[in-house]
Amino acid sequence: MGELLPFSREPRPADTAAESGGALAVRSDEELMALVRGGSKAAFRVLVVRHAAKVVSFCARISGDRAAAREIAQDVWLAVWDARARWEPRTRFASYLYTVAFSRARNHARSRRRRAAVFSAAPLDADLVPTSSADEIERLLERERRNRLFEALRDLPDDLREAVVLRFVEELSYEEMETVLRAKSSTLRSRVHHALARLKARLGKEAP
Amino acid sequence: MTSPCPAHDTLVSLIDGELAETRARAVRAHVESCARCRAALGELEALVADLRAPVPDALGQSPEAFADEVLARLASRPARSSERRSALLGRAAPFLAAAACVALAVGVGWRATSRRAADAEFSARGAASLSAPDDDPRRTLVRFGRVRDGVFEPILDGAHVRADDILVGEVGATEGAQRYLLAFVVDAAGERHWLYPAWEVGAPRPVASALPRTASPRVLGTMVRLEDPAPGPAQLVAIVLRHAESVDFVEQAPASELTRERLAARYPDALISVTRIVVEVR
Ligand SMILES: [Zn+2]
């Protein structure tokens, strides 16, 4: 997937020995962002690793497009890097990150045509479970349940989906949601309740 | 002693952290003593826990590998110009293709409804003789089961299978040369329902699934549900091959060609397993 250039080739004025490797891993998001602002790709990498899975899942949920989620998430990180100089240290990094991710994923959702569901084409090898134990079957069932939830979420109207994801997945306050979704908190509360009720009804009906 | 059950909406508000503390305490106390509300709250909590869990297969790689790809894109793009967008799109294309191959919809059954004219030649059967007895596909262990209440129940000859059962394959004794699996149900109407490889109508026709190499039996990672099968007698067929053949023959053959005898004649070196089942539609 493209040649990987070692980033040590580039000047890294902000990266001192103390900031590389393990030392960075214990820093808060905001401390890391301060280093990123100074041009530290090592600090940036730690942030990406730390939030990778959540941001990709978030992009998948908001866009409803799992196949494109990774690429949207990469764009999000590139945008965070590009805007590093404008990073305002007093804001919480996570809410900034998800604001960027939200607008990217939403734009994607609105421009895409709904894809047909694609059935697994992954080689079974990659998919093999280690034993036929009850635990593994439980794991498969959990995966199936989460897949169905993803599909149920995808089929919700945009406003309900966005509200429930921001509230329960990202745990934004209703005040934060007002800013992102540009709706009153009373409206947002009712969307969240509606979304949960619909998800629950649909998953209950489909349960094997 | 027992207070009246709170409205479902109140339970949602409790989960949502939107109840005033005294009210929340009262609702929690009720839930403690009421099995019905406890179950309802439990369902909501499970739903929210699943909402917070990662979307299966969305990342599809380690966070470190993902980070390295982001940094590679950063390093490879022309610095800050309007060219950037097109450069990124150019690089993005292979990503999309790769991501689309990731397992996307485990548990969704589908039915092959199209009958296309034959337009592909079947690959010639591997001419090499079996190098070692262990490489003989006929020694492969393959069976199917349904998952009920979290338990793998083998599907034996004569089994009744519900249309909404979750089916999964289990394989073993596959060490040695690579083996491939074609597995499908032929329902009472002669319709074919693919289990392995999974394939959706309209997608390019896939070839047989490469089996993982394992001595002891292991459940495969993809579960399948039949979609709209015809009720009545059906057969669950597995063909284990030494080569990756496309689904074409099975798709296009008349049902009469899919008996154990006819298949054994067509694939003399393959393991042919046919299980007679009865599909029940509720
Ligand atoms: Zn109650």
List the helices and strands and how they pair.
The complex is a heterodimer of chains A (208) and B (282).
Chain A: H1 22-25, H2 29-37, H3 41-63, H4 66-82, H5 93-111, H6 124-127, H7 134-154, H8 158-169, H9 174-181, H10 185-206
Helix pairs in contact in A: 2-3, 3-4, 3-5, 4-5, 7-10, 8-10
Chain B: H1 8-15, H2 21-33, H3 35-52, H4 63-76, H5 83-100, E1 141-148, E2 151-154, E3 159-162, E4 166-172, E5 180-186, E6 192-196, E7 209-210, E8 218-219, E9 232-241, H6 248-252, H7 260-266, E10 271-280
The complex binds zinc ion.
The site of zinc ion has 5 residues of chain B, from α3.
Written overview of the protein:
The complex is a heterodimer of chains A (208) and B (282). Chain A is mostly helical and 208 residues long. Chain A has two domains: 24-118, Rna Polymerase Sigma Factor, Chain: A (Orthogonal Bundle); 132-208, Winged helix-like DNA-binding domain superfamily/Winged helix DNA-binding domain (Arc Repressor Mutant, subunit A, Orthogonal Bundle), CATH 1.10.10. Chain A is built from ten helices and no strands. Chain A has helices at residues 22-25, 29-37, 41-63, 66-82, 93-111, 124-127, 134-154, 158-169, 174-181, 185-206. Chain A starts with 21 loop residues before the first helix and ends with a helix. Residues 1-20 and 113-127 of chain A have low confidence and may be disordered. Chain B has 282 residues and is of the alpha+beta class. Chain B folds into two domains: 8-52, no CATH class; 87-280, Immunoglobulin-like (Sandwich), CATH 2.60.40. Helices cover 29% and strands 21% of the residues of chain B. Chain B has helices at 8-15, 21-33, 35-52, 63-76, 83-100, 248-252, 260-266; strands at 141-148, 151-154, 159-162, 166-172, 180-186, 192-196, 209-210, 218-219, 232-241, 271-280. In chain B, strands 3, 5, 6, 7, 9 and 10 form a six-stranded mixed beta sheet that branches. A four-stranded antiparallel beta sheet of chain B has the order 2-1-4-8, with no helix packed on it. In chain B, strand 5 (180-186) and strand 6 form a beta hairpin. In chain B, helix 1 (8-15) packs across helix 3 (35-52). Chain B is extended. The two termini of chain B are 43 Å apart. The model of chain B is unreliable at 81-133 (pLDDT under 50). The structure holds zinc ion. Residues 5, 30, 34, 36-37 of chain B line the site of zinc ion (ZN).
